Amino acid sequence: MRRIFDNAISLMVVVIVLFLVIPLSAPVLDVLIVVNISLSIMILMITMSISEALEFSIFPSLLLVTTLFRLGLNVSSTRLILRDGGQAGVVIGAFGQLITQGNIVIGVLIFLIIVLVQFIVITKGAERVSEVAARFTLDAMPGKQMAIDADLSSGLIDEKEARLRRYKIQKEADFYGAMDGATKIVKGDAIMSLIITAINFVAGIIIGVVQGGGDIQTVLSIYSIATIGDGLVSQLPALMISTATGMIVTRSVSDGSLNTDVVSQFKAQPRAILATGVILVLLGIFPGTPTLPLLLVGVALTAGGLIGENALEKEKAQQRTQEPSAAEPAPESPAAGEAEYYKDINNVYSLLTVEPIEMEFGYSLIPLVDEASGGKLISRIVIFRRQYAQDMGFVIPSIRLHDGAALGTNQYVIRIRGEEVARGEVLVDYYLALEPSNPASQIDGIEAIEPAYGIPSRWILPENKEMAEIYGYTVITPLTVMLTHLSETIKKHAYELLGRTEVMQLVEHLKQTDPDLVADAIPNNITYAGLEKVLRALLKEGIPIRDLGLILEAIVDAGPGSRDIDLITEQVRARLSRTITRRFCENGQLRVVTLDAEVEKKILAALTKSDQGVYLALGPDIMQQIMTQLGDLRQKFQELSQTPVVLTSQVIRVYLSRLIAQFYPDVYVLSFNEITSNIQIQAIGNITLQAQTVQV
Asked: Which burial class, exposed, middle or buried, applies to 649 when counting CB atoms under 10 A from its CB (0-12, 13-18, 19+)?
């Protein structure tokens, strides 16, 4: 019995389909028609009572079932009308008499008006609304997903709330997609009702005259009443279902039920009601106008507007009286309150907090950041954080975004641990056109320098965007300028953001999958402080630390006796050869600058050991030659749009890297054992030492 009850709806759908085949008696048809009408009324009332569409998510399926039910009843009523001489039950006869009122012509016209209203106005409008709602909902999905990610990353919501929101967005997209298709069913149902009505009328007259032998006037009267009654009991539920369809797809713009929204929003505009009443009263005074109806409605609206205005004024007055009482505990002046607050020495410590990353921006840049104004910077930062974590194995901390009164309206500043490291300026209503090496023509605009890479650029008006692209410029939005500058700054200073807490979090994450390795490496082979130095050294030179397990294995292999962080880092880099190779090579080829053997000997001989460790004490003449040649070769890499790489031996790599970083931070130094054997190395230059001439 329970199994039958659980599948009652499925069985009901099967029975509805059978209505298309199985003949129904007139009493049964009467009951089912009343059920159909009541079900349509119930659905319409539900759609007006819900506050959002997903509260009635079964509506698309229910729409199909009710349409099928209505068509089944249409077929059954048509069978009775044509078989029993226009007698199809009490309900159809009563509705036919109600609409005709003894005049067949008027009845037919009224019925046609109802059908056209249903088909042209309600059904067509509901179809269009559903189509637009479906498209807009699907288009808004990525933005909603990114907003959820932004709230999750900033800590406004937890993972459970994020999952619920994502599920709701998916359900919403599925619902509106289903509604877009379901409205086509409503349209088809309206067309089919017209066809069935025409069949009933034409076929009934033919059968009545040919088979029944009645006179044409009597037959016309009988079948007209039956046809109109049948069409009406079909079109009324269809009209209510179509109205319900339009109602449910517009629920996304409402905060409550339709009844609540109508009452609250009309109550909030009493002056409009009052003005309408006064206008109607004035119209009623003029001669020739329907004075009594205009005065009745006008006086009623005027009275309602006055009552609503008084109620609104009382509510505002009550709010004004509550605001001072709520503000009474507040201090008399901000300065006095601030002084009182900082009397407690513990509150002074709150001033010592330093944000890991901070971005301050001028007033005109707020729309790029504020999500309420359509700003997308936060969502783009979320995407960057996720991508950087996947690439480098380090999660960027939360970024504090706030406006700054001391900045220009178009300026922004990026700070790392409280200190300014980058600054830029963007024009919100313009595009930035990055100038190519050989532009086809100059484009009008405000000259500027792209802040992230230092590329000569121009701020251009939106109408010049297409022309700039034709001339070979790369055109980007102000938001992209800010985000690119922020992301490149973070990449450059990522090693400064990696502290002891972050290292411990990475190790704890590795413990979940490889606890034995962590126990073997820490603290037997290296401390957390030493591991932090190794990881920071890798990040500083653009080496991913994602494979922390392999890094710890290399540290363990180095042995517990090794305390030289530089030596440990070099051994770790050798174990990360595949990662380093993938990071710098392109299409199986690595273009590099090599060092002459004599240069390497000079550098090796210049290594000096002190109490603080080993450092490179290279003569100024040799240093100048190396940097001059490297600067020339660096231009070749820029022309090839590739990262400049110097290839040398493992012994001097770290010291040469530190020397070059002082002059060319964008040049990377790799050793031979950091490159896998399957890579083809192409030297585009060689640094040599020239003989020095001494003048006497």
From this structure: middle
**Contact present, 414 and 356 (Cβ < 8 Å):** no
Residue 488: closest CA among 407, 390, 382, 414: 414
CA–CA gap between residue 537 and residue 530 (Å, rounded): 11
- Decide: residue 117, CB within 10 A, 0-12 exposed, 13-18 middle, 19+ buried: middle
Strand partners, 132: none
Q: Is the dihedral of CA 321, 322, 324, 328 positive or negative?
A: positive
Q: Are 93 and 226 in contact (CB under 8 A)?
A: yes
Closest CA to 227 of 314, 104, 379: 104
**183 touches 126 (CB < 8 A):** yes
Whether the bond into 293 is cis, omega within 30 of 0 = no
Q: What angle do CA 593, 595, 596 make, to 5 degrees?
A: 135
Q: CA 39 → CA 33, 242, 332, 352, distances in Å?
A: 10, 13, 63, 67
CB 138 within 8 A of CB 176: yes
Closest CA to 523 of 570, 556, 550: 556
- Identity (one letter) of the amino acid at 251? R
SS3 436: coil
> Would strands 607-610 and 613-616 be described as parallel, antiparallel, or unpaired?
antiparallel
509 vs 495: CA distance, rounded Å: 19
* DSSP structure string for 34-57: HHHHHHHHHHHHHHHH-SSGGGGT
Query: What H or E segment, with its residue span, contains residue 447?
Result: strand 446-449
Asked if 241 and 40 count as a contact pair (C-beta separation under 8 A), the reply is yes
Q: Which helix (DSSP H) or strand (DSSP E) does residue 324 occupy?
A: helix 291-327
pLDDT digits (tens, 9 = 90+) for 383-427: 888 888 888 888 888 888 888 878 888 899 999 988 999 999 999
- For residues 424 and 481, is the Cβ–Cβ distance under 8 A? yes
* pLDDT tens sequence across 427-468: 988 999 988 877 778 888 899 999 988 888 999 998 888 888
Amino acid found at 378: I
| Mode of pairing for the β-strands spanning 589-595 and 607-610 | unpaired
For 612-657, the pLDDT digits (tens) are: 777 788 888 888 888 999 988 888 887 777 889 999 988 888 888 9
- Counted residue by residue, the chain has a size of 696
CA dihedral over 118, 124, 129, 131, signed as positive or negative? positive
Q: Which of 363, 359, 463, 339 is nearest to 402 (CA)?
A: 359
357-361 sheet: strands from edge to edge = 399-403, 357-361, 411-416, 419-425
Number of other CB atoms surrounding residue 120 within 10 Å: 11
How large a percentage of the chain has pLDDT more than 70?
82
Cα–Cα distance, 349 to 567 (Å, whole number): 40
Q: Which two tokens stand for residue 335?
A: 């300065």
3-class secondary-structure state, position 396:
coil
